[in-house]
Amino acid sequence: VAAEDQNFPTHHGFDFKAIDKAMEHNKKGRKVRGASTISQQLSKNLFLWQGRSYLRKVQELIIAYMIEGLWDKRRILEVYLNVVEWGEGLFGAEAAARQYFGTSAAQLSPEQAARLATYLPNPKRYGRIRSGPYLDGRTAAILRYMPDAVVP
Length: 152
Fold this sequence. Notes:
The chain is mostly helical. The protein contains 8 helices and 2 strands, in the order H-H-H-H-E-E-H-H-H-H. The chain has helices at about 15-25, 40-45, 55-70, 75-85, 95-100, 110-120, 125-130, 135-145, and strands spanning about 85, 90.
């Protein structure tokens, strides 16, 4: 939550502020910035394809809204963490914890959990790198956000 969707506890599947920020950022021609919530990412991972298109984005929003209506936030997060990809063919937090740290997800330290979260924007790339200035800085930032990332 601290890494992917800090407004997760309060939104209903999509975050209009994040969408507006991403659109402004992307107008400037810099690196493309996304605004998908955890619920949107879950809907894509469970039901849709990985490519980028307006059709997929609309479907993703509809499914995310439905998921938010059916499940509570803890269930959404639980399913997300069990299906998200953390590396080439590496799915779920448990598999990632065992692969990268040799322990169960329940036994991860806050630093290890934050490091795993840094891989999520691009797990096939960052999971291979595992360390470096960007990942170290991002891990530190996630650790700072963690106390505020409480899911009801």
